[in-house]
Amino acid sequence: MLELRHIKKSFGQKLVLKNVSLLAKPGELVHISGINGSGKSTIFKIITGLLEADSGEIRLGENDVVGALIENPDFLEYESAMSNLHFLANLNKRFNEKIVRDLLRHFMLDPDDPEPIAKYSVGMRQKVGIIQAVMENQNVILFDEPTRGIDQESVSLFVALLKKLKQQNKIVVVASHDQINELKYDRLFILRQGILQEK
């Protein structure tokens, strides 16, 4: 379960989030739309603890583990994709090589490619970012503009992944200023002038 109650957030004099409330249940695929700068990334940063809300409440289930792709993912630039994912998963002692290899192959990336991630295209980096958000069996997953820079074939692979996550009864929240036509969301929200409203 993911619950946000009356989240409010300002940066200096600018009130970005006025009233954000949301209740998402296992197996739900949720979409949050909004123009660039509307505060979608801010919501995710508050959920993951990267930012603190001015007021309001966030609740997660006792055994929930959050995975997230927020804005442009950072990596160890001179290490391979596999080395990066190994490093990130090991922070929580959750590295599973088979799962990571399968995910890399799913997104048409070679698990044994020694090329440093610094040489990856924007789309390739984005796919590695998607993988790190799900590779530890996280059950509350946040995707911020997940299809940025990736080609149509990879978008279809991303859609297939989301359908699988939904079947596994995970909560998935996608924030983007446009919709992925291939996806059928359970619930649609729009963030406008700091207020999150269900469509």
UniProtKB/TrEMBL annotation:
Keyword vocabulary terms for this entry: ATP-binding, Nucleotide-binding, Transport
One example GO MF annotation: ATP binding
Record's keyword annotation contains DNA damage: no
SUPFAM superfamilies found in the cross-reference section: P-loop containing nucleoside triphosphate hydrolases
Domain of life per record: Bacteria
ABC transporter domain segment(s): 2-199
CDD domains: ABC_DR_subfamily_A
PANTHER family per the UniProt record, alphabetical: ABC TRANSPORTER ATP-BINDING PROTEIN ALBC-RELATED
Protein name per its UniProtKB record: ABC transporter ATP-binding protein
Species of provenance: Lactobacillus kullabergensis
